[in-house]
Amino acid sequence: MLDTTGPADVAGVRRLARDGLLAGSAAAARPRALARLRGGVYTVAWPLVFTRITKPLEHRRRHADCARGLEWLRPDCLDRFHDDVEAVVDHTLRRATGPIGNLEGWLATRLTPATVDAHRRRRGEIGALQRPRLPAWLSGALDGDGWLCDLAVQLLVWVGVPATAGAELWPLDGWAARRTELTGEPPPTRDTLDREVERVLAAMRTRPAWYAEHVERPLGHKQAPVAPMPAELPALELVASHERADARLAGLAEQALRAIELRLNRGEAAAAAVASVVRTVFGEAPSSSVDADWLTTALADRGRLDEIVAAALAILHR
Description:
Radius of gyration: 36 Å
Helix content: 55-70%
Low-confidence stretches: none
Order of helices and strands: HHHHHHHHHHHHHH
Structural class: mainly alpha
Largest sheet: none
Number of strands: 0
């Protein structure tokens, strides 16, 4: 949608806003005209949304890559960005009823209420509490424990958030840090936090209808947890090991032939040159795939050495 609106659409939106006619025109517009109005507002709004809402949020979430620009946003972050821009567009086309001389300036004052209202509306659509608060009955079921009551509120907030906790159902690492901050106690073990979450859920389940509507239903809208990828994937073997060994030997052979030819050109005796080079290249090179004992025996055998020398000279046309 970012590239479908031309300058004329944006100019038309600005003119209607200056004249105080933007909201009225949107309410009366036919579908095609309304789409052009939405596109014009979208074009004006999205840089403000990214700069003032998306970028700071991604920094808080430690998504440095997402904060670099639209093209770097991860899929879930990009979806959230588009949701926020759409919320601002909807808000503008409903609320821009008076003259607006500076559209960007007016939009900047509406970003937070527009996105917060839309966020609450989306939470309500899936059954999550729009403004999670601790019911008195739930506080009583938790014996008024400060940490467990806070955990209950965090849980009610989390079920309405589109994000997932990786392969986990609950963001336990974040809740562990919050527990330490609130109680002043050392970080809890995983088992301790699991038991505390289960105690809160058990208390919530004492009101089955409430639990089904405000916990189970919104949880059902989250994506299924994704199993973590291994830290390092095993390398894909494109070439068999014996083929790699043959390739190494071929390379060593070419290296040896060049060295033998250089020594022969200097006037060195063929047998001495070949024996020295073969022993150095194939006997000392790491991972040469040549058995060192076999090589030593072969070079010590005059008959075998003569065969090796003859083969080298034939290849070099000497």
